[in-house]
Design brief:
A hairpin with a 5-residue loop joins β6 and β7. It is built from 13 helices and nine strands. The longest helix is centred in the last third of the chain and has 21 residues. It is globular and about 60 Å long. Strands 1, 2, 3, 4, 5, 6, 7, 8 and 9 form a nine-stranded mixed sheet that branches. The protein has two domains: 222 residues, Spore Coat Polysaccharide Biosynthesis Protein SpsA, Chain A; 75 residues, no CATH class. It is of the alpha/beta class.
């Protein structure tokens, strides 16, 4: 991996971007970095085993970054996942600030400068985020409908809002002070899963630090049909994805040293609610009922809509009712 860097280069912004088979879209992101109004940038592009022309595109930019006075490094490794690719880049972060935009997104020219300026003027904060806009990856046309909720933009305690999808994850909108990030990950290694690299980056940080929002759309999110996040999954793939998220969130809770009953119950509710919906989707009535029982145990069960939804689904497959009825009776008898 090379010698680890130390986040002590005042004013430098390290950009870590994972890329996999980005031959068609990587240039736009790199062009947007070169167009930044901020003078101190160190670009760390980490390739996740691409088998197209991604590396050739990247190498073609080396001279342009040097001419701009920006650092430029390409790190390569076998194909695994985005979190593994990020981990290949983290040892080379030496900047005071850290961002990690996706390889098919773009930054407005003032994106880096505006966020650095805020953190310099407000030393009590360890991070800041901006808003995003969305555009079609084929036509470049703006999309009016956002993929994620904005939520309450006045809020600064964002851990639960991000976990519970009440506000946006949108990786390239966030900027951290690198030293605070490596206080959480001193080995410069986030948990590696096939899902959720932004959860690993964001949630432990947001559990510890407040994050204000600049009311400016400084980051462009590319919406591409057929991209990894929008590929239709089989039942087995989707159930694995949900199980991976549960394991990941448990690991994040441990990283946060989360020990209050209220917080742990809230994590348990998050997992049970997701388990209920995925079980209902695929007609796994027993698993859906067990998820509702778990919700009740951790204080999240609401008699009404969810149970009616499950019972209606079961009635459509009425032969299942005899299998579920004993558990159903015990559940209400013990309430």
């Amino acid at each position: 991996m090379g010698q680890e860097g130390t986040p002590n280069r005042d004013g430098v912004v390290s950009i870590v971007t994972p890329v996999y088979n980005g031959e068609r879209h990587l240039a736009a992101m790199l062009d947007s970095v070169l167009a930044q109004t901020y003078p101190q940038i160190d670009m760390i592009l980490t390739d996740d085993g691409s088998d197209d022309g991604t590396l050739q595109v990247a190498e073609a930019y080396r001279g342009r970054f040097a001419g701009r006075g920006y650092g430029f490094r390409v790190v390569t490794g076998p194909h695994k996942n985005a979190s593994a690719a990020i981990n290949r880049g983290l040892p080379y972060v030496t900047g005071e600030f850290l961002i990690w935009p996706d390889s098919d997104d773009i930054l407005k020219p003032e994106s880096v400068e505006r966020r650095v300026s805020f953190l310099r003027k407000n030393p009590e904060y360890q991070c800041v985020r901006s808003l995003a806009w969305y555009f079609d990856g084929e036509t470049g046309a703006p999309r009016e409908e956002a993929d994620e909720k904005q939520g309450d933009l006045s809020r600064e305690a964002l851990f639960w809002d991000v976990l519970e999808f009440r506000t946006f994850v949108c990786c390239g909108c966030y900027m951290f002070r690198s030293a605070a990030f490596f206080d959480i990950y001193p080995r410069r290694c986030i948990p590696e899963y096939d899902v959720g690299q932004n959860f690993q980056m964001l949630l432990p940080f947001l559990y510890r630090h407040r994050c204000p929002t600049l009311r400016e759309a400084l980051y462009g999110v590319c919406v591409r049909r057929g991209s990894h996040s929008r590929t239709e999954l089989t039942q087995a793939q989707e159930e694995k994805k949900y199980a991976d998220y549960e394991r990941l969130v448990d690991e994040i809770a441990a990283l946060c040293a989360m020990d209050s009953r209220e917080a742990l119950n809230r994590v348990a509710r998050w997992k049970a609610e997701r388990r209920y919906h995925i079980s209902l989707k695929y007609g796994r009535w027993g698993a859906a009922f067990q998820a509702l029982v778990q919700l009740r145990r951790c204080g999240g069960f609401q008699i009404g809509g969810a149970l009616k939804e499950l019972l209606w689904a079961v009635c459509r497959d009425s032969w299942m009712w005899k299998k579920l009825y004993p558990a159903y009776s015990r559940f209400f008898h013990n309430r």
